[in-house]
Amino acid sequence: MKSCTFYSLMVMSVFYSEKTAAQNALYIPPVLTGTDFQLNVQSGTQTFFNGYQTPTYGINMPFMAPTLFFNKGDSVSLHVTNNLTIETTMHWHGLHVPSKYDGGPHQIIEPGQTWDATYKVMNDASTYWYHPHGLGKTDLQISKGLAGLIIVKDSNETSLNLPRTYGVDDFPLIVQSKAFDVLYQIAIATELDTVVMVNGTKNPYLDAPAQMVRFRILNGSSMRSYDFGFSNNIPFYQISSDGGLLSSPIPLTRVLLAPAERAEIVVYFGMLEGQTVYFKNYGSELPDGIFGAAKVGNDTVSIPEYNLNPLNGADYNILQINIGAPTPNAITSIPASLATVTPLSETNATLTRNFIFAPQDTTDIQQMVEGPFTINGAQFSMDTINFTTYKNTTEIWELDNQSLLAHAIHVHDVQFNILDRNGTPPFDNEMGKKDVVLVMPMEIVRVIMKFQDFTDDSIPYMYHCHMLHHEDDGMMISFLVRDSSSVGINEVQGNTLKLFPNPANDVIEVTLAQSSFQKFSLNLYNILGNEINIPYQVNPQNIRLDVSSLSKGMYLVKLIADNKVFSQKFLKY
């Protein structure tokens, strides 16, 4: 108990010592352009505190990652090489890509290996991001630096009179809160995230011109939500949400972003040349129940150590902005109309799914705020597909939060529209395309989405809470998108084909109920759909597969017998 108390006090002192004037120029990540990208995941060190080297991760650099520029309609190839000593993955957050290239926990990249993802950029212009998505490792790897932006451009956005000169009047802001232990190493699975960084910069300042300036904000924190605004309540316009431009600029003085949410805003600094303004978190204005507010839980239960964190419920500066002279041909106004936004219609939905977010033990009041949490009573399993949907299906999902903590819910593959919150229409700046939505305690949020373009009979997409403690603790499920026309009467799925043990490390026994193996064919595929040849032994009542040479990951066994096709997945560990 003494060590825990010492740790808490040490972290608090770090926060208060950081309430000094900004002293470090904001790091602007370098840009990669084109259609072929080499991404090297590596380890490094960073000096966050004088005299201490903190171990970090980075992509093509010791810490953080380059910004990738994509053009809608281009086919891009990304080659991700894992130079770490542990497994990793790489997920293209918000992008609509085939599941085999989505970079979820099934697409494991072993140390020393390169994973290639090739896909067509189909998303509208907006700000997306990329980060690891490994089973139980997401918080660790993002916190240590593996996070970068993807900026998608399209013809509509480039035709508009908007700031878009990267690093001049168009700035990326990756906001992350981090915890440090007594050795000044980045700590995870703690609620004492008391140091806020922007683009990996502690105590940052930025020199910006006296004109319209665009900020692409990503909440890249593990757990914390922010109510962003500027000092003196300087007004700004939100022009884009997660998945694309809004129909028109939305005037605001605050924008609330949960973990993994993005917003593009434009602010006019034209009358402020020579002055200093601050980009802030107005944490005192966050509603109770959101991680980062003054209070979570209720009068009898809260998250342990939550009240020891001085960030919770506080207002504080995140970025100092020094306003200088305008640039040549400065933009001083923005269009009143941005894009044609046509939300999906409820009348086109053919299915409504209900998802309940609740603690694993609903009788434990502490779990109502601390977790572990489940989705419809389930926690993530690598060898389980929780549900299947079909290509060109429009669905309504009812997200029912029956816990005492707000959850940031993310759906892979699609951009969705928010229909309502407890029957009330969404806020104006939530009317665009979204892939993350914050669901308040005891709130039901309805969203609508359409599954298009990509199908796969074995490789799933993920659906989970993007608060990384929750995700790593299992608040995640998986789903398939299949082509209904490919489901024939001769294809049999379910429990007819048995694989034991599963997961497996060396040998798997394949058995088929009420069948002997007289005439059959057997094929094995990896998560990318590539056929794998391995030795096997045929016995009267089973087949023994030698899987000892396989890399870790998910595999699919397909067996054709009695003119029927049987399939089943297994996990090699």
CATH class type of the largest domain: Mainly Beta
The multimeric state of the shown protein is single chain
User: Number of helical runs?
Assistant: 5
In the predicted model, the low-confidence regions spanning at least 5 consecutive residues are 1-13, 487-494
Shape-level CATH architecture of the largest domain? Sandwich
Into which percent range does the helicity of residues fall?
under 10%
Shape label: globular
Give a description of the structure.
There is one protein chain. The chain is mainly β. It has four domains: 33-157, Immunoglobulin-like (Sandwich), CATH 2.60.40.420; 160-337, Immunoglobulin-like (Sandwich), CATH 2.60.40; 346-486, Immunoglobulin-like; 491-572, Sandwich (Immunoglobulin-like), CATH 2.60.40. The protein is built from five helices and 42 strands. The strands form eight sheets. Strands 11, 12, 13, 14, 16, 18, 19 and 21 form an eight-stranded mixed beta sheet that branches. It has a six-stranded mixed beta sheet with strand order 1-15-23-22-17-20, with no helix packed on it. The longest helix is centred in the first third of the chain and has 16 residues, at 2-17. It starts with a helix and ends with a strand.
Please tag this protein with its features.
573 residues, mainly beta, Immunoglobulin-like, 4 domains, six-stranded mixed beta sheet, 42 strands, 6% helix, globular, disordered N terminus
